[in-house]
Specification:
four-stranded parallel beta sheet; transferase; four-stranded antiparallel beta sheet; single chain; Alpha-Beta Plaits; 53% helix; 8 strands; RNA-binding; 7% strand; 20 helices; alpha/beta
Length: 413
């Protein structure tokens, strides 16, 4: 028991390690404590917070630490090339944090099933012999914080190893090393790559386990669509979508952006639907974090934005001189798209009022607006101030366009 307690304590210390200690460590190694700490919050079965909110909070902490590190590097006279490498490493850490936490959350049910299979293998008999199931976060229903920590580490390790993917799937680039669990635990988890566990997974007929969705959803889907169509729907739903960019016509053209991206080994294709859209080919696709480290992004030439959001803004057809309200602005993607559209006539200035209940997301808008060259058009204020200011300045009681309100496409002023 003392041996187990010491190992759990060591794991806790590792998770609490300050990620600022060495910003140039390997990507996952430097992000692992933050990832596990975030997973610990979303792993419990009851009363768990929203995974995306947990990720945003963790990213804000990483961003704050990154800014401090950049200041320290500048004060020490560090070369620009080293600071650029530090920025690239930071964006990779951000990408791994969000990808790992959300990935484990999405694939949790299948990963838990795989974890149980691994521990049940003959090679793992020592787990039961010495009663050390807790080192793997078992039983999975346990609410004990230390068991939750161990479970988070194991699920994360299995995710990094690609245990959730079918054997026919290409894992893409080489996965980072799993250096955040001890050797004995890792030896058991690596059984997920063995023939026995893979064969057991191939024999699974439960759609909920196979595609990591709740039983009630899988059952209802199968009842409504039939087994084959339901399974096809779940298979496609689990595939990651393409990386889609929205070009900023105030900074560049689509042809120029595609050419500029090609110099950084990105293969971009012009979309047939949105004239602002560039889709990155899968074989030329890099991490979003890497995209946001490009000078092109820093200079406001593009943003990462779903084509559906772009089309929604185009469908609104705002005209210069209008006042537009985005009542579900988030981090301002659609608000910025609309602001760019309204810049075509400098004689008829427009305003975009951005509102959202998530104040942390709203705080990201001013920097994005400045990067895009529309900082004078986008206003972030409480909702009540939006309408009061619009009514006072225009002498009427409303806005010309509304984005983000169900059932409302536009409202005349």
């Amino acid at each position: 028991q003392m041996r187990s307690l010491l190992r759990i304590f060591a794991a806790l210390v590792a998770c609490c390690h300050d990620v600022r200690a060495d910003p140039f460590r390997p990507v996952l190694g430097s992000a692992a404590p933050a990832i596990v700490n975030a997973l610990v919050q979303v792993i419990p079965r009851h009363g768990s917070p929203d995974a995306e909110k947990v990720v945003r909070k963790a990213l804000r902490k990483l961003e704050s630490e990154f800014q401090e590190e950049q200041i320290q590097l500048q004060e020490r006279g560090t070369a620009e090339a080293d600071r650029a490498a530090h920025r690239a490493a930071h964006w990779r850490r951000r990408q791994w944090l969000s990808q790992s936490v959300l990935g484990v959350t999405v694939w949790r049910r299948k990963l838990e099933f795989i974890l149980e299979l691994c521990v049940a293998q003959d090679a793992a008999n020592w787990v039961y012999k010495y009663g050390e199931q807790g080192r793997f976060g078992l039983p999975l229903s346990a609410d004990d914080p230390l068991t939750t920590l161990q479970r988070a580490q194991c699920l994360m390790a299995l995710y990094v190893m690609g245990a959730h993917r079918d054997s026919s799937e290409d894992g893409g680039e080489e996965a980072p090393a799993v250096d955040f669990v001890d050797a004995e635990v890792l030896e058991v988890l690596e059984l997920a790559r063995g023939d026995s566990v893979r064969s057991a997974l191939e024999e699974v007929t439960d759609l909920g386990v196979k595609y990591s969705v709740p039983d009630w959803f899988a059952e209802r889907l199968e009842q409504q669509l039939g087994r084959d169509v339901a399974e096809g729907f779940l298979r496609v739903s689990n595939e990651p979508g393409p990386t889609v960019l929205r070009l900023n016509p105030l900074r560049t053209s689509r042809e120029q952006l595609i050419q500029d991206l090609s110099e950084h080994k990105y293969v971009g294709l012009a979309s047939k639907d949105s004239p602002l859209c560039v889709v990155l080919e899968k074989n030329g696709q890099a991490r979003r974090a890497s995209l946001q480290s490009l000078q092109l992004w820093l200079d406001g030439h593009f943003e990462v934005q779903a084509e559906g959001s772009q089309l929604a803004c185009l469908a609104l057809r705002p005209e210069p001189g209008m006042t537009v309200g985005d009542f579900c602005a988030g981090r301002g993607g659609k608000a910025l798209t609309l602001a760019v559209q309204l810049q075509s006539d400098p004689e008829r200035p427009s305003q975009i009022f951005a509102y959202d209940v998530d104040e942390a997301a709203l705080k990201q808008i001013p920097a994005s607006a400045k990067r895009s060259g529309v900082e004078q058009s986008v206003i972030v204020d409480p909702f009540k101030k939006h309408l009061e200011r619009a009514a006072k300045e225009r002498g009427v009681g409303g806005v010309d366009g509304v984005d983000g309100v169900d059932g409302v496409d536009g409202v005349d002023g």
